[in-house]
Amino acid sequence: MGHFLLVTIQVDMYDRLALNLENDLINAVQMHESKGVLIDISAVSIVDSFMGRIIGNIATMSKIMDAQTVVVGMQPAVAITLVELGLPLAGVYTALNVEKGMALLQQKITDEAEFDLEEADDDDDQPE
Length: 128
Description:
The chain has 128 residues and is an alpha/beta fold. The protein contains 4 helices and 4 strands. The chain has a 4-stranded parallel β-sheet, sandwiched between helices.
């Protein structure tokens, strides 16, 4: 998927599986020098606070490694549960489906590249 990793979760996650996913994803970001991680949870019907925290951890660690995280396919019951649990999910972007999630990742990368170019231009304009 180019600079993106696509993960589709097809089963309800238990704690050990979620930890393995977190570890495997972060290693894959490094190995492939990924710029984005897209996690499809459309088949997941239950999310608890631990799984919510794992998603947040993946987003935070990915951001530190210069990759954005988008979660797609969230069922209404899962969204309600995450809100009721009060999980902030900082750094996690969401989209309705994989297509919109990929477009969002591409837009985030384009925005960051433009910002980097503007900063480089500003640095060139300053007298030494």
